[in-house]
Write a structure and sequence with these properties.
124 residues, alpha+beta, Lipocalin, ten-stranded antiparallel β-sheet
């Protein structure tokens, strides 16, 4: 009887808790070589609160445009040894390093402080 009660309790818990256990895997960082290949000479659209269009020229120049606010920033870009996309710019919106991650929703970027996952909705 005790075994039946324990089994029934365990089965009920498994059924009730199953939806909570089925969560997406955490995004993982993309390596330096892959980030360089993905972004060099490309235009990326990153879905921050103000979607940001980044034009990353092969010569290391970057132009950023906030598609809602109209904020524009320029500077230079590189990929550091950790695979983060780094920009140097006098504009704080653009300046700093952001992680590039691969998750269930696709590629994304972090904020400069390393938090968040903001979808890269387009690379062309």
């Amino acid at each position: 009887m005790l075994a039946h009660t324990l089994f029934s309790s365990a089965a009920l818990a498994a059924i009730v808790l199953a939806p909570f256990g089925a969560r997406a895997a955490d995004p993982v960082p993309v390596g330096k070589a892959e980030v360089q290949q993905l972004v060099s000479g490309k235009v990326l659209t990153v879905q921050y609160v103000d979607p940001l269009r980044l034009t990353l020229a092969q010569d290391g120049k970057v132009d950023a445009y906030g598609t809602v606010s109209g904020i524009r920033a320029i500077g230079t870009w590189s990929v550091d040894d950790q695979g983060r996309l780094c920009a140097k710019s006098p504009n704080a919106v653009l300046d700093g390093c952001r992680g590039v991650l691969r998750g269930d929703r696709g590629l994304g970027m972090t904020k400069v402080d390393g938090t968040g996952f903001f979808l890269i909705s387009e690379i062309k």
